[in-house]
Design goal:
The complex is a heterotrimer of chains A (about 210), B (about 850) and C (about 450). Chain A has about 210 residues and is of the alpha+beta class. Chain A is about 35% helix and about 10% strand. Among the domains of chain A are: about 60 residues, NADH-quinone oxidoreductase subunit E (Arc Repressor Mutant, subunit A, Orthogonal Bundle), CATH 1.10.10.1590; about 80 residues, Glutaredoxin (3-Layer(aba) Sandwich), CATH 3.40.30.10. In chain A, strand 4 and strand 5 form a beta hairpin. In chain B, about 30% of the residues lie in helices and about 20% in strands. The chains are: A alpha+beta (about 210), B alpha/beta (about 850), C alpha/beta (about 450).
Amino acid sequence: MARLNETSMRIANDILGRYPVRKSALIPLLHLAQEQDGWVSEEAMAHIAELIGITPAEVLGTCSFYEMFKRSPVGEYRINICHGISCHLVGAEDLIEHAEHTLGVRAGSITDDGKISFEGVECIAACTEAPCLQVNYRYRNNVTTDDFDELVEGIRNGSVAVPPHGTLAATRQLIPEDKAAGNAMVDDPTPPAWWPAPQPEEGSANG
Amino acid sequence: MSDATETTDEIETDEVEEVEAPAPDPGVEITVNGQSLHATPGRMLIDACEDAGVYIPRFCYHPRMTPVGMCRMCLVEVDTGRGPALQPSCMLTVSPGMTVETESDATKKAQDGVLELLLINHPLDCPVCDKGGECPLQDQTMSYGPGESRFVEEKRHFEKPIPISENVYLDRERCILCDRCTRFAKEVAGDPLIHFIERGNNTEVNTFPDDPFASHFSGNTVQICPVGALTAKPYRFKARPWDLIEIESTYPNAMGDRVTVQASRNEILRYQGVDSDAVNWGWLADRDRFSFEATMANTRLGDPLVRGNALGSPDPDGSELVSTTWSAALGQAAEALAAARAAGGPTSIGVIGGARLTNESQYAWAKLAKGIIGTDNVDAQLGDGIPADVVAAMPRATIDQACAPGGTVVLISGDPKEELGTLYLRLRHACENDDVTLIELTPNETGLSRHATQSMRVLPGELGVVADAIVSGQPGADIGLSTNGDLATAHAAVTAAENLTVIVGRTSLAEHAALTVEAINAFARIDGVRFLSALRRGNVHGAIDLGLAPGLLPGRTALASARNWFGDAWQTLPLDTGLDTAGMLQAAATGRIDVLVLLGSDPLRDFADPELARAALAGAGTVIAVDCFINDSIAVGADIVLPAAAFGETAGSHTNLESRITPIRPLVTPPGTARADWMIAAELAFRMGEDLGFESVEAITDEIASVSALHGAATAQAIDQAHDGIIADGAAIAQAPQFVWTDLGAPESAIPVDSYSYRLVIDRTMYDSGTQTAACQSLAPLAADGAVRLNPGDAGRLGVVDGVTVRISSKRASVEGPVIVDERISRGVAAIAHNHPGLDARSLVDREQTITDVRVETL
Amino acid sequence: MVEKIVTRRFDNLNAHEIAEYEASGGYQALRAMLTRTPAEIHDEVRNASLLGRGGAGFPAGVKWGFCPPGVWPRYLVVNGDESEPGTYKDRQLLERDPHQIIEGCLIACYAVGLTQCFLYIRGEMAHAQERVAQALNEAYAAGYVGKNILGTDFSVDIVLHWGAGAYIVGEETALIESLEGNRGMPRLKPPFFPAAVGLYGQPTIVNNVETLANLPWIIERGADDFTAMGAENSKGTRVFAVSGHVNNPGVFEVEFGVTTFRDIIEGSDYAGGVRNGKKLKAFIPGGASAIWFFEEHLDLPLEKVAVDQAGSMLGSGAIVVMDEDTDMVRACHNIVRFFARESCGKCTPCREGTTWLERILSRIIAGHGRPSDLSLLTEVCENISPGMAWPPRMTTICPLGPSAVSPIASVIDRYRNEFDSYITLSDRSVIEVSAAGMNA
């Protein structure tokens, strides 16, 4: 587990270029590190600190605030069973209990083979499809206990098409150089080019 | 999270007012608990209330840091016209007509509620907590808190105190997450190495693993911690606050940091910073904060020593320093002084040192040397400073003037972060918060480089030319690492500056002081420029102002021109301008000086030419040392050692780099029979059949005020009562002495480094092997082993990495030491910090040369 | 059924593709806008009285006007960090019609002079990120976003940014902190009103996804058409997600003020009534932060003022229905636990208070309750939200702490018997709900 590799660095530089202030790239870069290794190592945090020009403690401060960043190795597949209020009302706790039996570990743990981590999580915004869960942040809706067992089976036999933990979006945003408007730098007080010169917005804003 | 919980319409309405509210009129009238009062516009409500004698409890608020409104202890009911609402008084500036209730039921209920919530996870270990007895949380709880906790759940647990740096321990169970230490680390010190980690109820303060809070200022977090979460190793379990006695004083560093000295049973146990608005804002560098360990060290000298058995000592070889009585030691010293004066005249006596002393002791020694003995061979600096006449003639700035919003500062000195800790904090704040333009002219990056508007790399040998080019605006070409464009930009900045301060010290001991003087000369041509001296040694500014320098008398009075108006004050005056330290050592080495007095100085360690220092100690007939410790020079060469009282044990006053005179007050007695330096001078005078004319510190202070126009306002009473001290104002000198600065002619052109060589820079760090730091058990381990620091590019060219031993050779000598690769070092520079174990770069330096170039070779 | 605005393309499962979007009138508002001045566009939106759809319901056009004149640059931050329990609308808008959001961003940027836009999407929504990334890539390629949009002077980058799991980041100042790479801890207002002091200290407009989704329609059709829909104080439509114990949970766009809670919960076009023929016990009208409603509130119209006056809020458009068998203590605990876990830890009452509430409720459910616990719960609530009133007064920095008080305030008196039965253990027949996972 390590610093960002060459491939990651190419993406990292792209990301860093999209913000007027480098530190704004911190969360995206932590995701990138997690995508590379499946979790966020100390080496990666130290590397990101260098890239942004802040201390590793500052990186850790941000990293540890957000639940998605895992600072120790986790299963290749992370199952997050929603126990938000909508799912709670329709049996989320039963599903979690079932999952504990099926996987043989308590919620918040990792299976012995290191393949699957699972835990109960707060609302994942699929409330009308309750109970629901995510596998590496890909949704499964209206999940029955049978559905769950099938899912686990599928993960174990490789038939579940979900990218490994850490992979966030399969599609990345690309801003072509010739199309980019450029960052709005904090110290550039130039009004927007399309902004009418003589009268600022007073007329409309306070009218 | 939905915006449902973001803002209510009511809050949005505030937004309209926030944007459109006019600036408050001067003198804002507000009502606090029914009483009408006028507050300063822009004042935080919590401060405005305190100004009016209404104290609002707080934990997170600290007036020297950005308010965060986190602890919620300072909630009060505020009505700004839309009915009373609970508001954090630390985040609210006063506005006209504001009505505030700090004692209402709603306010009390809110504050009690916050207190209860703070306590639910706070351990009840007050009896074993260092903070117990001076703990704001404890105090609040005793005054207002609930009797018994209703929290029956298990408290939050963390591993008990963990070290977060060499000298600071963190107990996360006691922490109330007020963000003071973490804000200090980021905002004030600029070392954000501690941070909030995790979230919500699991939040803790911690460092990154294996990356300690190695800040030069870490001790301040202990002082500002409102609970016992942060404790300092040197103080842990040493005392209870109610056993402490304390006194406000001035720490004898060049900044003159205001401190409280605290002691118990005649033992100093702690220094705390005092929030002096003009000086240190309550902060201290760790080196100073924890230096009381040196004062209390068992290596302190308690009795006079003499070498050999001349006075019937039991040492049969006659080569060791042995204890003796004061009368024997003083008698022997006075005899040596009298004999030397009789035989070789007054100039056969020299005094080196004195920056450690109080103003009063400095005056006493200046009077003894110049006014009684009649020698001008007196120098408080050890060749590593700036000629005293130049310092005396510089128009001075105060720190506040230098740091005033919108000002411009040119920095020509060693790294303030290493040498003048609290000045660094003030400058950093000025750059970050008050829009001060900083232009650095230093050989390598400093702690301030990242805050500088323009950080220029000026190698030894280039300073005079670069300064001249910046001032004249006619560079014509690149100079060293400074491009023509850089120079033009700097020229534009300094000429446009309405408030220009040049902070000046020595950037390298391996560069001749003449270059610094050239730079001062250049900047002095700008109208209205002011200087702030960055000389770092203790009370060196007092020493210069009180005449512990060749050619000077007390009050920045030139010996050569001031005889007429100073002569009456002292019975005699030296005939000629005397020697500086280098001259005295040379004279001692060649037998022209017979008695050398080391007044708290260690030339063997601190003078740029250790070989000469050694020869001088051997060559002098008698070496008399006045000191707190046996240093290298004393061990090797002193014949008579007179133990001196240290800071905390003596009374007097101190002069800081602004010329601010503030009181030094005693709290404990010196070890053994050690005495104040001025008493030793008075006794020596007495034994030489003379009389210095004073018997108390106050009498000396008042004599200074009477003989020195510069010190006219600084009477003993005035100093004692002044809030932020008294500035010894150069303008007060009735007949300002006309100094002629060394005429160096046109600046030399820059001396290029040849492609095989490195320019040697000898700089300083906060923790070195200096006597005081070495005597502190908590600080001594922080002095790193000596090393040569190289730019990564140069290290790559040499094929060396961290830790590889290299040979560094000049025309004069050759030394070996390990490499540290450091990107803050300029290309072409070999930087070696002075006074670190294992690598002494001084022998490489030829003091007669402007610069020293070295070869660096792998072995 | 009423005309739909933001979900109008939901029938087309390929609406996320640029060709489909264009074919259904997409980017026409952008073209039309570019022939008009920014002030005219701003006026149009102000005249539409478009209320913010995130929850606070503040008029977007007025909010835009708070940027101090002459201060540049200004930023747009899109709040797509939808995490309020029960809420499921922004994710659909992002996944199913991402170009509509992009076009909405462009309208806001043009009208207010915002020169860079950051589209902050909740970290857990991988699919939404993919859809938006794809849509942005298409829009850049087509010249709708970026430099000199459609050959005009209008240039703006829209940067897709993603969160990493922290509910509090939905609070607009916390969102800005997070976007700056910091811990998502809210800033105090004042002085940190984003429109004046926002991202990087610059004027910043923070708008919710659904708010922006309305803009293309408003520019296409005009403010008059928009204000023709809805109620006196709530114009246009609103998307509601109805979940919990209903027959047909779903996401419905309805006209403000015309539809009632009874319509949307019981109507056959909507959620189709409480499932299994049970009776309604309670419902949450606007996300987990809201005070709960009961049977007597069913006939209130879905309209801001009416709901405010009844003592709760429409909030994030999340209606969660609980049937007669619901264990109110456990439901209450579920929501309190949520807020305790999501507290950022910045201010004392929220950090310590919400956790304490959760632990008391846990203890009650585990059978270790004390008779004094109910008054203790109330008093801890009072320390977070004095008076436990609505809208909440707070000792906290942001409304998260008081949100944890809402469920307790909603049920502690009305269903005190259920608490009592846990504490006395004399009657556990209230409802049998598996205890599993309660302490997970």
